[in-house]
Design brief:
This protein has 240 residues and is an alpha/beta fold. The protein has 10 helices and 5 strands; from the N terminus they run H-E-H-H-E-H-H-E-H-H-E-H-E-H-H. The chain has one domain (26-239): SGNH hydrolase (Rossmann fold).
Length: 240
């Protein structure tokens, strides 16, 4: 009789365990890393919804328990700052990037746009652009280092957002700008050689779209532009 009760007890225990595993779902997390573009800088020097917000709405529709971490979005954020946080997280008080990466199921990165836009605007398009190409090479090299450091912590899906041209084309700059952004696309596309890294190209979509960049004197997109970026990320997610 005791053996029978013991068997029933263990069968009940197994049943509870199976039901728990079927119904219980651990919370997943979306980690957004970036500067002005990730923060939602608008064409009129205010802040509103960014592609991160639109993407989070999409992710919530797929998983009602997913959370978003925006601790590592800052207008002055640099790749070097992120690398330093990974190496010495204790220096950054509550903003522990390694822990955020461990918790993340999906990561988006958009960084360097403000500095790139500034260099594009100050560049003399009548001369050669060697220093501009050197800057891009260095930036993408640092980005690759950041991705490698992230993947040492956790092999999670990383979506790297590309760059778009904020300048109006003219006779002096059109050919050089198109060559420059083709070069950027090729370099960033090479990041996909690393497993679980996906490059999100946005330059072509922004080309000649005045409603994405309605202020000629300001480099950042409208809500429609941010929504377009989010949709390009979603396409990548769904294709993988």
């Amino acid at each position: 009789m005791k053996k029978k009760k013991l068997v029933i007890f263990f069968l009940a225990l197994i049943g509870v365990y199976l039901i728990y595993n079927i119904t219980y779902k651990e919370k997943s997390s979306y980690l957004a890393i970036g500067d002005e573009l990730a923060k939602g800088h608008t064409p009129f020097d205010t802040y509103s919804e960014s592609y991160t917000d639109y993407l989070y709405t999409y992710l919530l529709d797929k998983d009602s328990k997913i959370t978003i971490n925006k601790e590592f979005i800052h207008e002055d954020l640099r790749i070097k700052d992120l690398l330093e946080n990974i190496k010495n997280p204790s220096v950054f008080e509550q903003k522990n990037l390694p822990q955020a990466i461990k918790n993340a199921d999906i990561i988006t990165i958009s960084i360097g746009s403000e500095e790139l836009f500034s260099k594009l605007r100050s560049n003399n398009w009548k001369t050669t652009n060697e220093k501009l190409y050197e800057f891009i090479d260095d930036m993408i090299m640092d980005l690759e280092k950041l991705i490698n450091e992230i993947q040492k912590i956790k092999k999670t899906d990383i979506y790297v957002i590309g760059y778009y041209n904020p300048l109006v084309y003219n006779e002096e700059n059109e050919t050089k700008l198109k060559s420059l952004f083709n070069y950027i696309d090729v370099k960033l596309k090479n990041l996909e050689n690393t497993k679980k890294v996906y490059y999100v190209e946005i330059a072509n979509g922004f080309q000649n779209k005045t409603y994405y960049l309605p202020n000629k004197d300001h480099a950042f997109p409208s809500l429609e532009g941010y929504n377009y970026i989010a949709n390009q990320i979603i396409k990548k997610i769904e294709s993988h």
